[in-house]
Amino acid sequence: APPQTDTSTSQRLPAEGTLEVMRRALRTPMFWLLAGSFFICGATSTGLIGTHFIPHSIDHGIPEATAAGTLALMGAMNFVGTIGSGFLTDRYDPRKLLAIYYTLRGLSLFILPMVTDFSGLAIFAVVFGLDYIATVPPTVVLASDIFGRRHVGIVFGWIFAAHQLGAALTAYLGGVARDAFGDYQLAFIAAGALALLGGLMALRVERGPISEALPSSRPAPANA
C-alpha cells in the first residue's frame, strides 16, 4: 500500500515562513491600520463597556441585577449583529462597513454619559450590542484580501492581539478615570473619539494584495 501522508504536517507553513510573513506584514501600513483600528475596537468594547457598563449603571441607581440583565441583552444583540455583519461583508466594501460601525459606536459612546435611566440603558445595549462584534467579519476579510488566505490566520492573530491589548489598557484606564473624576463621562467621550478615529483608519486601508510578495504558500514537504 502507498505510504500515508501526514496531512497535518505537510500542510503547515514552515516556521521560517511564519516569521517572514509577520516580518513583511509589520513593514506594511495596511497591517498597522488594521491592527490600530482593532486596538480601538477592543478598547471601546470589551475594555470599556464590557468592564465598566455595570458600574456606570449602578452609579445612576440601576440595581446590579438589572444592569447585568441589560449587559446580557447586549450580548444577545452581539449574535444578531455579527451574523448580519457577515452577510453585509459578503456584499459591500468592508472598509465602508467598518467606517459605519466605528462611527455608530463613537456616537453611541458620546450619548452614553447622558443616559441614566433603565430604558435608555436598554436602548443603548441594543444599539451597541449590534455593533459590538460586527467589526470582526470585515476586518478578517480585509486581512485576507491584503495578505492572502494562506496567511490570514497568522496575520489576524496579531491583529487580534492588538484588540486584546486595547481591551486590557482601557479596562484599567476606565477605572482610573472613574476614581479620578467621580464618573465615567470623560472615559466614554474619549472612547467615542477613538471610535471615530477607528472609522477613519478603516477608510485608509487599501484593499488588495500587498506589493511585496509574501513567502511561498507551498506546504512544507512531508516526512518520509
Structure description:
By secondary structure, the protein is mostly helical. Helices cover 75% and strands 0% of the residues. It has 10 helices and no strands. α3 runs antiparallel to α10 (185-204) and α4 (49-59) runs antiparallel to α5 (64-89). It is elongated. It starts with 6 loop residues before the first helix and ends in a 20-residue tail after the last helix. The model is unreliable at 1-11 and 216-224 (pLDDT under 50).
Task: Name the helicity range.
Answer: over 70%
The dominant shape is: elongated
Number of helices: 10
Total domain modules: 1
The helix-and-strand class reads mainly alpha
Proportion of residues in extended strands: under 5%
Indicate the low-confidence ranges by residue numbers: 1-11, 216-224
Number of strands: 0
Which fold does the CATH topology refer to?
A: Growth Hormone, Chain: A
> So what's the CATH class?
Mainly Alpha
Short description:
With 224 residues, the protein is mostly helical.
